[in-house]
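Q: Hi! First time asking for a complex rather than a single chain. Here are the components, and I think there are two in total. Is that enough to go on?
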Amino acid sequence: MKIKEGGVSRTVFQIFNYCFLFLLMLVCLYPLYLQFITSISHGLEVMKGGITLIPRNLTLQTYTTLVRGELFMYMKNTVVYTVVGTLVNLMMSCLCAYPLARRTFSGRKFFTAMVTVTLFFSGGMIPMYLTVRSFGMMDTMWALILPGAISTYNMIIIRTAFQSIPESLIESAQLDGANDVIVLFRIVIPLSKATLATMLLFYSVTHWNSYFDAMLYLNKKELYPLQIMLRNMLIGGLFNEETAIAGVSADSFAVTDATLRSAAIIVTTLPILIVYPFVQRYFVKGVMIGSVKG
Amino acid sequence: MKQRSILALLLTAMMLMSMVSFADAETPSTYLSETPVTLRVMRDENPNQPIKADTLKIKTIKELLNVDLVIEAPPKASYTDKKSVLIATDDMPDIMYVDFADVQAYARDGLFVNLSEHRDEMPHLFALLDANPSLGMATVDGQFYSAPTLYRTNPDATLSGQLVNFRTDLLEKYNLPTPTTWDELYDVMLAIKEKEPNLIGMTNRKAGNTTATRKLLDCVAFPLGSYSTMYRDPDLNSGWIYGPAHENFKEVLKYLNKLWAAGLMDPDYASMTKDLWQEKLSSGQAMCTIDNDGVVRNFNVALATIDPSYKFGVIPTLTNSLGQTRNTSYANDRPGNAFVIPASSENVDLAIKFLDWCYSEEGTDVNNLGKEGVSYDNVDGVKTFKEEILAKYAANGSNAIYDMSSDLGIGLLEFTPRYDTTPDNQVALYLQGSDEAREAYREVTRSILNDPGLIDVSTITTAPPLNAEQTERYNELLIAVENIVWQEIDKYITGQEPIENYDKVIEAAKAAGATEMEEIYNAAWDTALGK
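A: Yes, that's all I need. Here is the structure of the assembled complex.
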């Protein structure tokens, strides 16, 4: 009986809830949608303004212009940095998290404390730059990967997940003759898949979005990642104050700063949007394991 | 066997001789170094014009000078960060593009080569610097530590500035005369507003880090009789003054208030953005804007899609209420954007020679036009881009100039210490399509070029070199004074405060340090001129 009464109010609640969430979804999606319709509209129409729901005077010229440039080179670099970087990140984080998670590791508290210090204090930009330079990593992709090989915060989440694995399980493996390497790769890592999938997403999104290190450590343009191009388009790309050339035909305005900017945003965001749903199911689970049991 | 060895010897001798003769032929007198040397230079990259590695310019420099030029081009958006780190770690390339403020901040620490000490090795640069005494302002303690970006004129040169752009079709439609004074401009806008009440009179935009109000005043204050910051007033022979702290600034505010009261100011003027401004102008909502005429002319294309007769045109410099006919044009020489040679460079001598070459006629040609016979022809000193090159890029429309400059490695947005606007001018002319349109375009640009009211903005605003103490004090005062002035301006434009009350703002600004700022500038100016 009680359930039935609850049923009516729940239905009402659900309807409102869906409406509310639907509106929320629109609010979240609209900016992206607006960029999309801007990127496929004619530059002149965008200049005149008023494109809000429907693209006007459809053209794909913006995308062909974008592709004609060095987009693929930047894209390739970003993919390489993201893939290699994330692998290095996961590897190093696991290798660091495992001993810190083992109760049998002497000096565990000391090392954990030392690692935690780096959460709050860092060397700063210039010492970091000098270090990277003295290791001869300038103008190589390692400058973007090795200095940040371990994110302390992520490593601590992994450590907490590793700690949640019963010590008895590890002991029995050791009784069967497994050493630490086997324990880590055959038992601990396979049991922490959800957490590691989350970390994979954290790390890869960070690599995908990072531009600052690349700007700092790379001088060769052929090594630049995508985000440097995007940022330059968004911030540096406002038309040059003092040089403007009089175009004469409407065609010459099919592609403008505004449409190019939108297209670049779509192109850089799309891969993450595509990957996200596949990793998302691990996402909440992975973070929860780390926090609840920590 | 013996014959063979003789033959071998002969062949070797021949080879050696041919190598020697080749070597002779390959060391032209233009070479800066016998062995090939790599020079690293750095400047920011504008996203419109990507800087490429194997351009015609770079190949030509290799051929002429035996220098492998490597241009490192961090994106414009991150250039300041990158530059700061490189300066802080003394890890700079052989030649670096900086702001003059960097030169002022670090030259005394010995970070950059003192070019004045190498005057004899840099004849081309110093000939140009000596020819224009106002460039003496780009020195630190009387010494040139940086080579400023300089301009070379050309037969197709045009002039641009923040000019009065007006919908000339409206004047024709309502049979109104072209205004010659600011008051006539008001009358004309009022007359049009009566017929078309939906039209905005004057609109403006935000630019860079300044507010929209500040940008508006940057554009209109000088033609109306004052200026928005420190300047030397050519009509008052005033020395350095801070515009908003002087009586004439009231004329500017009075005029803007008059427009506001009549409903002729853009109601959004204080919160305008660039996009909104663009939208209003290209959709035919506004009659007038005081801004870059080249940019505004581009909106004519969008306007023509609404009605072919709609059109913005430039109105010759107007006379203000003080009887002055004046406006500013963009500066040609740019001492604010300069090139330095870091003292830590391993190639200082070569960098000095190379930088000087960039200021020579030959260097200027290569940096702005590419290679003679390949990208341009030179007929009796008149340099013209090859037709096929112009035609190739014309298809890219409004990006033509950037695409062409990017591929050839030329122009102001490349590594070009001395620039020449030939590419911009010739592309613009070519894009007009027909000879008739070209002539019409020439007529427009020529009338601006010959407008006697236009003054090069650098002649009234190029700041004198301040010493460290003066810089610190000046910046401190500037913040205090601007805080007082700029929060009041809108009240006077919108009439919340009557103009008589502006005297109080003037007093407050002077009390906060406007007068001292003027003294600092005037003292530094006199020092720089050796008074």
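A: Chain B touches chain A through 59 residues (CB under 8 Å). Let me know if you'd like any chain examined more closely.
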